[in-house]
């Protein structure tokens, strides 16, 4: 009898593990499929010319250099605006803000900010940065728009990283007459840095893949040159992909998948970079 | 049941050197609606070690944290009554809490060296207080580590992480870190509870050697420790509503051999707690 009971327990355990494993497998399959399929379909399009030339014949021939550069400029612009503001807001909310209704309202707003559809951010950017601030359809307007969208994630990950710094470190510092700001600056921030930078890199890699917001604030399909100032219009990989896939007739399929592959590599390489920074700084802090 | 003893009488040291360093009068401490301390009055003599003993949850640590206003960090904490350092009330809006904590340093239950080198751990306070000269910092670090009886063990690995030291060394590093800012009072919140007996004895020896120059207050669960290191002892207990009260306060020898209060006697003879 005791053995029989043991058996049913073992069977239910095995069933549970099988389903859990299956669920994990199902989440991984689409990701692997997308990566492999994109490489298979678009790998043939990747040549040095494709990466280093300007497009011709409405993108059917030539390369996508200006879209690659445009996307890098966008990521840089997003980082420049979102990182400092996001980190400072994260510090304020965790270290200084009192726990009252206003703080809770702000926290709620930040959580919900992440759920706002990206095209709505695009319209916000159009009416505020493009029109009200008169930055025009430009790299600057697009960077600010994407930064506004990325802020929620930067603030949230910064807060989490700051909260993860043990209370003992703060107390040890405050207990020898070190000010709160010095404690934040010299104890909390260095410890939270890997988490903050990981969140920021992930946020900008997500921004790099956005199509909808930049559509209305300055992305162009074909431009004769590379942007010379923040007030110029720009090309970007996701918008280029959208246009060549949806609006250009007789587009070689391989070229479309080639653009997709480059975009995927750019975004994923930043995710890898984030992981590398995290691992590296963790090793250093454990010395 | 608050017993105030004349500090001059209880000290074994020359009377002219010893004064009342810290004075707590009619302290009531609340965390929100919960009263953690009730009507505690206590004078802490300088250049000696005062132990606060009592069962878990009786408010010993809360009492200790009042002296450098660490309770300020707890949301909802509220203090009534008066605490003075050298006759100056410290719960006063004009008091600079940062300056107070420089004079009244604290060592915690769990050793908490910063995740940086041994050198940087000790130099952290002086640097933040504006000392930039490398030579001066080196002098402070060496002096503090020597005072904390750690210098000989770490002098060849000042660049190594403080977290790589043993538990007892980490706690002495934390003591050195406090000494480096030249405080007058050192608060120790169960400093040996995470340490083995050998490391504990080293810390106790260290405390005795520091007692000549610093006012030390130690919270401890360990009554043998209180008996071994302290000059004066305070016994605290919880009342039925869980508020902590001071039961008895006096010279350690007297409190342990001839307690005046029945509750103290019960506790130190192990009948409860």
SSE class of chain B: alpha/beta
Strand order of the largest sheet of chain A: 1-2
Beta-strand percent range of chain B: 25-35%
The end-to-end distance of chain B, rounded to whole angstroms, is 19 Å
Provide the helix percentage of chain A: over 70%
- Please give the order of strands in the largest beta sheet of chain B: 6-7-8-3-9-10
Q: What do the pLDDT scores of chain B average to?
A: 89
CATH superfamily of chain B: P-loop containing nucleotide triphosphate hydrolases
Q: Radius of gyration of chain A from the CA trace?
A: 24 Å
Taken as a percent bin, the fraction of beta residues of chain A is under 5%
The total of helices of chain A stands at: 11
Which structural class do the helices and strands of chain A define? mainly alpha
Span of the ends, CA to CA of chain A: 55 Å
What is the name of the CATH topology of chain A?
MetI-like fold
* Total separate domains of chain A: 1
Identify the CATH class of chain B: Alpha Beta
- Kindly provide the name of the CATH class of chain A: Mainly Alpha
SSE sequence of chain A, one letter per element: HHEEHHHHHHHHH
Poorly predicted parts of chain A: none
Question: Could you list some keywords that capture this structure?
Answer:
heterodimer; A: 287 residues; mainly alpha; MetI-like fold; two-stranded antiparallel ribbon; 11 helices; 75% helix; B: 273 residues; alpha/beta; Rossmann fold; 34% helix
Structural features, described:
With 287 residues, chain A is mostly helical. Chain A has a single domain, classed as MetI-like fold (Orthogonal Bundle). In chain A, 75% of the residues lie in helices and 1% in strands. A two-stranded antiparallel sheet of chain A has the order 1-2. In chain A, 39% of the residues are buried. The model of chain A has no long low-confidence stretch (mean pLDDT 90). Chain B has a single domain, classed as Rossmann fold. The two termini of chain B are 19 Å apart. The N terminus of chain B is likely disordered. Chains A and B meet through helix 7 and helix 8 of A and helix 3, helix 4 and helix 7 of B.
